[in-house]
């Protein structure tokens, strides 16, 4: 188990940025899931690795389906403010991973 705050702090050392901060940074993360584009259905996990997901809106959609509190997505720039706002409303923290990580 790791707390969301710890995950954000550790990944920040690799230039990962948080967007749509979850109100509860003390949230406990017990499981990790990885999106599989060839998979049959949604995966479940407190943290979702949105591997191969092309945009923030799709990553957020997958995060909701996974019941995730955090979604990691590759993004060098900022996400659309509508996506960030929707993540905030859903209680999901989007973690933006630079392409070179």
Write up this protein.
By secondary structure, the protein is an alpha/beta fold. The chain has a single domain, classed as 3-Layer(aba) Sandwich (Udp-n-acetylmuramoylalanyl-d-glutamate--2,6- Diaminopimelate Ligase, Chain: A, domain 1). The chain is 30% helix and 23% strand. It contains three helices and seven strands; from the N terminus they run βαββββαβαβ. The strands form two sheets. It has a five-stranded mixed β-sheet with strand order 2-7-6-5-4, with helices on both faces. Strands 1-3 form a two-stranded antiparallel ribbon. β5, α2 (56-66) and β6 (70-74) form a beta-alpha-beta unit. The radius of gyration is 12 Å and the shape is globular. The model has no long low-confidence stretch (mean pLDDT 91).
- CATH superfamily label: HprK N-terminal domain-like
Low-confidence region ranges: none
Mean pLDDT: 91
Just give the CATH class.
Alpha Beta
Number of domains: 1
The CATH architecture name reads: 3-Layer(aba) Sandwich
Distance between the termini: 23 Å
**Number of helical elements:** 3
Structural class: alpha/beta
Can you count the beta strands? 7
CATH topology value: Udp-n-acetylmuramoylalanyl-d-glutamate--2,6- Diaminopimelate Ligase, Chain: A, domain 1
Main sheet overview: 5 strands, mixed
SS strand fraction:
15-25%
- Strands ordered across the widest β-sheet: 2-7-6-5-4
Rg computed from alpha carbons, rounded to a whole number of angstroms: 12 Å
> H/E series, N to C?
EHEEEEHEHE
Q: Give the overall silhouette.
A: globular
